[in-house]
Amino acid sequence: MQTKELTISAEKNRKRLMEVVYNAKAGHIGGDLSCLNVLTALYAEVMNISPALKDSPLRDRFILSKGHCVESLYVVLESKGFLKPEVLDTLGQFDSILSGHPTIDVEGIEVNSGALGHGLSIGVGMAIAAKMNKESWRTFVLMGDGEQGEGSIYEAAMAGNQYKLDNLVAIIDRNHLQISGNTEDVMAINDITARWGAFGWDVVTMNGDDMQSIVDTFANIDYTNGKPHLIISETTKGKGVSFMENIASWHHGVPTEEQYLQAVKEIEERIATLEA
Question: Among 86, 189, 254, 271, which is 20 to 30 Å from 55 by CA?
């Protein structure tokens, strides 16, 4: 896909996300919006994964470690053909297979996740398995920046270096806000580059709000350098909805009807401009 097409796809996913969260009356909308561009690019451009490959042992694996932002994953899985619209519309309803965190009941989801700090450890295990079997598939793990306070992440980071897992890509959604405020006030994590570099990881920073930066960053990963990869994705909490951007209270929130209509209007205007 061209960058423009990916951007349009992300905006359409953003509109669908607003609809899903509004109808379900639940969701971690702020973090959903901040990581949606990256998720769109991963599934549409970067990863070797599709419904046709869901049982292939050579498919790439993805883990949403920040599992509370599963709504964004659901809409991307729908756009990729894993989820039917009528299934996604059941989110928040009794007896739906869709819950507030990823589960393997949903086609396209590899592991149950959402207990913060666990995703990277699972990803390390997957990457080791690929190395042991001499297979070329890759593992991608998306973490939150508030999640970086979990100690298990750093045990996994050491293991990633120990086993030279250059087939492992971890991404931090660096929107600087968590449920209780600014990450640097709650549990400071800067300088991330120096910290992960000291663990032996190949660390790069990208603008996760800009699709060209995302595409370029993933295209330039060296999967043969003997180092696990960390991408610091600088993003905006609530990206793409003016009244949600950089507002901590939208970590978990549901828009009113008026807010929902305003958000959709903003997104539709951007889509129309991009498609003109």
Answer: 86
